Amino acid sequence: MPRPDLSLGELSARDHAFYGLVWASTTLTSRVDQALTRAHDISLSWFEVMLWLNGQHEPVAASDLGAKTMLSRSQVSRVLDALHARGLVERSPSPDDARSVQVSLTATGRAAFTAADATRRAAIADVFDDLLNDDDIAALEGVWNKLKRAKS
Q1: Are the CB atoms for 80 and 89 separated by under 8 Å?
Q2: What's the pTM value of the predicted model, to 2 decimals?
Q3: Residue 130 CA to its chain's centroid (Å)
Q4: What percent helix, strand, coil does the chain show, rounded to 5?
Q5: Which of 33, 70, 109, 137 has the fewest other C-beta atoms within 10 Å?
Q6: CA neighbours closer than 13 Å in the CB half-sphere of residue 9
């Protein structure tokens, strides 16, 4: 028996664009998470924390990661515990606040991030990089920047 062709019904262009963003996010997130887990036993939330740490040249306060990532403070704490247990991050006391710790990627963590990032790129190549040209990327950047500014 043929499956019915499902439809979202009548949507405004704005609603269609919104649900398109949700669909793209869900699809890409799932694809990347599965690839990272399969290849490196690293979840997407671990990767996100490592991404932010990889961009730093000095240790950062663990609490600052919660403000930058899409994770809660408790999630960041759990991710850092797991990354630390695997030797991917190191903790050091904060020079400014004895109650706080700073974190940074270890050399092993940087190597793991580099490998995981290559996996991420490969996982989305056919559904992102290969489909979008430089004008598409610039348009997306413009949209994301507007949306990020509204959050601030």
Answers
A1: yes
A2: 0.86
A3: 20
A4: 65, 10, 30
A5: 70
A6: 0
